[in-house]
């Protein structure tokens, strides 16, 4: 019978999974509804929908990994199970991080004003550049995940002792080593996001300097756009650093036998990133924010109408 800690873990994971799927599913639903109404789609909509779908996949894979490891450790000891989960996690994780990098680059090219010829060419061809990076990153993620799935990396060892404390020890050193090596590739899109952040700051500094030069005291639309983009990229960078640090700690812990408490803690913290970032994307996008506030008003109105009926 699962202990109180394990029950709490399953409740937290299920709650985070529900919140994350709701937030990312909302992004997909709003954009797809807009596509059906307009019969057209923009680059930003394609990136947001793809990012939301990849985040849903990350949430499902991490949750499935945690539940299998907790409820059926012997099934987890099978190479096929581990390789499949690792491959799906790598595909969804790489895609998610790369799509976020595409979003950051899109913000940079659309908002920033930099006079360098290369940047001006990228700005004029923003749609082709971002879509090209988008497709290339997705194909790269598929290739890495297939390589991970088909490669021979050793086996997982699970020593399970069923007693009062229901403890087990798991060691999957070869799997952990390959995950760390292959997922170092996620640092490339992180670096692109960091570069976008620095260039946005540089562009904002130049724009603010020009406004002071012309004695313009109030914020204009360009300044507001810079600030929104910088806030969005900053929050992503902070969440990603936390997410990747936990990933490295938890995955490195597989190099030596560890108890399930480390894995449960890692699973809970890991799911926070794809769950919470969806709501940051919603509040940072005008169309998504308006739709979200409309839903909240409808829910609030429903509860107001329902309250007198309950009191009767």
Automatic annotation (TrEMBL):
Transmembrane segments: 6-30, 42-64, 97-122, 129-148, 180-205, 235-256, 262-284
Keyword set, alphabetical order: G-protein coupled receptor, Glycoprotein, Membrane, Receptor, Sensory transduction, Taste, Transducer, Transmembrane, Transmembrane helix
Keyword Membrane: yes
Protein name: Taste receptor type 2
PANTHER family: TASTE RECEPTOR TYPE 2, TASTE RECEPTOR TYPE 2 MEMBER 9
Native organism taxonomy: Eukaryota, Metazoa, Chordata, Craniata, Vertebrata
Entries under SUPFAM superfamilies matching the protein: Family A G protein-coupled receptor-like
Sequence ranges assigned to domain G-protein coupled receptors family 1 profile in this UniProt record: 23-250
Assigned protein family: Belongs to the G-protein coupled receptor T2R family.
Pfam families assigned to the protein according to its UniProt record, in alphabetical order: TAS2R
UniProt membrane topology term: Multi-pass membrane protein
Transmembrane in keyword set: yes
Main function: Gustducin-coupled receptor implicated in the perception of bitter compounds in the oral cavity and the gastrointestinal tract. Signals through PLCB2 and the calcium-regulated cation channel TRPM5.
Database matches in InterPro entries: GPCR_Rhodpsn_7TM (IPR017452), TAS2R (IPR007960)
Chief localization: membrane
GO MF annotations in UniProt: bitter taste receptor activity; G protein-coupled receptor activity
Cellular localization per UniProt: Membrane
Entry GO terms, CC: membrane
Organism: Panthera tigris altaica
